[in-house]
Amino acid sequence: MQVWRSGVYLLVSLASGIATVLALPVLWYPGLARRWANWHRNRAGRLLGIPLEPRPALRASGRRAWTDPATPRDLLWLPVNALTGFALGVPTLLCVGNLVPGAVGTALWWAFSPEDRPRLFVEVAVTGWATALTLGPLQIVLLVTLAYLCFPPVARVHARICLAVLSHSAAEDLADRVEVLTRTRADVLDAHGAELRRIERDLHDGTQARLVAIAMRLAVARQAFSDVPRNDQFVQDLLRDAHEGTEEAMTELREVIRTVYPPILADRGLAGALTAVTTRCVIPTRLETGDLEDVPAAVEAVVYFAVAEALTNVAKHSGATTAGVRVDRTADRLSVVITDDGAGGADPRRGTGIAGIRRRVLALDGTVDLDSPAGGPTTITLELPCGS
């Protein structure tokens, strides 16, 4: 079975080598070269029993198709396929082709005219049964033995050459890995954002609503007891404690909701939320926002908290008279620049504000750059991924 598969593989390789030469003007186009190369690569992988990751089809066109990292290998495979297909396929064809004269010469030599009788070992004409029954089986045995010994290793050589030419380089494997990680990171950000919104919605519409209802009932109960001239002071104290505890729980719950995903982001979006933050700042703050498109919820939350924390630091420590916030998006990167005209000298080691901003941003594979020379001004630049 292995000999048969190897022989078919080599004969198909010979045919594909001929087709490559004939169709070279067409196959020189990168898109067709990629499909032709992928077909050969898949054949080679099946013959060797090696599971291969599929090579994506070439989607770029024009100049971008020629600059694709895999295009040079696809084009290199065209002459390599033609040469190896001929070099390894022609002996296979001769071996298989000479099996036919051996079989015919052994059994049916007498049915041919003297001029057209089969020839064994290329030059020996079959003229009688003695020649047919000796040289015919000998030729068949030799060719079958040759096929058995040579076809599988020769086919594997061709397959390995194919994979060697068409395999990714280490740099391309790394680039593919980075692309996959970038895509999966964007998916994680989207999933994280959806989960944040779900938690905020559940806490706001479920747990908080139930606590509000309990607090209202307790308030009514306290009022009812206070309206009764004779009342149990102990029960009133219990109701008061329960009411106050419920109010404290609601306050804490609101803080949790704001830290998980500020409701203002869900209501007004990132630009609207930042407008509210800069408006509340005690120092006059200028806000500039570009076209932000669709920003993942996790990134929105980090930017919101970072800007709020940075402006709080400006108001408390910088002595600035003005501040500015600029938010721009370029491709899949969101840039946030926070500036003030204060005294400068900001040091993340002397407080938790900037360190907290850095932790939030780095958690999303972002970057933080602080420029705060003594005497000012101070600039904090944040870069965050927001899609792929």
Automatic annotation (TrEMBL):
InterPro entries in the record, alphabetically? HATPase_C_sf (IPR036890), HATPase_dom (IPR003594), Put_sensor_dom (IPR025828), Sensor_HK_TwoCompSys (IPR050482), Sig_transdc_His_kin_sub3_dim/P (IPR011712)
Q: Which reaction does it catalyse?
A: ATP + protein L-histidine = ADP + protein N-phospho-L-histidine
Annotated membrane-spanning segments are 7-29, 86-112, 124-149
Molecular function as annotated in GO:
kinase activity
What Enzyme Commission number(s) appear in the record?
2.7.13.3
> Which CDD domains does its entry note?
HATPase_UhpB-NarQ-NarX-like
Give the Histidine kinase/HSP90-like ATPase domain ranges.
298-388
The coiled-coil segments of this chain are none
Protein name (record): histidine kinase
Q: Which organism is it from?
A: Cryptosporangium minutisporangium
What is this organism's lineage? Bacteria, Bacillati, Actinomycetota, Actinomycetes, Cryptosporangiales
